[in-house]
């Protein structure tokens, strides 16, 4: 029993040290349970490996002003989201990081997501529309995840591949909410965006 207590103390100390290393506000860290500390630590290790030495394009920063940044592994794990995701989706960075994107995307969009997660060539561009769970209610209020609705996101970005120390890859995306009803999306519809003089600024592959 004494040996078990000692192991639990050591485990608790290690997890406390790990939580202090996470780049989160102290008020957020104070409410993390042990599985969350492990999940977020693994996400930050992976994002550090994937994006070490990467210079993000100015265009991506400009698009982020209207949305949020998301990094998804080839397996669909959301290994990083910018903290302003809560502003658009009503879900916090810590609630989403480390979870699989298929848990939060509309079942009818899973094939679209799988097609875009198929890595292909390094630097290959991605441009697609998906529906993702949103806890954002009217006038900026949030609801419980069980009451979440679907929000349409326009995702743009590119494939990022790291060859060393291990061959890992991800999608580096900016996600912008579109003012569309999720019921409008199907295999027979497509979305387009226009400037004020009605010139096309975007049209999806469909």
UniProtKB/TrEMBL annotation:
Signal peptide per UniProt: none
Keywords, sorted A to Z:
Nucleus, Repeat, Transcription, Transcription regulation
Q: BHLH domain spans which residues?
A: 1-48
Pfam families named in the record: bHLH_HIF1A, PAS
Cell compartment(s), UniProt = Nucleus
Any one Gene Ontology molecular-function term assigned to this protein's record: protein dimerization activity
Q: Cite the SUPFAM superfamilies for this sequence.
A: HLH, helix-loop-helix DNA-binding domain (SSF47459), PYP-like sensor domain (PAS domain) (SSF55785)
Q: Which GO terms describe its biological process?
A: cellular response to hypoxia
Q: Where is the PAS domain?
A: 57-118
Kindly give the InterPro entries that the UniProt entry links to this protein: bHLH_dom, HLH_DNA-bd_sf, PAS, PAS-like_dom_sf, PAS_fold
**Looking at the keywords, is Repeat present?**
yes
Question: What cellular-component terms does GO give this entry?
Answer: nucleus
Extract the PROSITE patterns matched here: BHLH, PAS
Q: Which PANTHER family match?
A: ENDOTHELIAL PAS DOMAIN-CONTAINING PROTEIN 1 (PTHR23043:SF8), HYPOXIA-INDUCIBLE FACTOR 1 ALPHA (PTHR23043)
Please state what the protein is called.
Answer: Endothelial PAS domain protein 1b
Q: Which organism is it from?
A: Myripristis murdjan
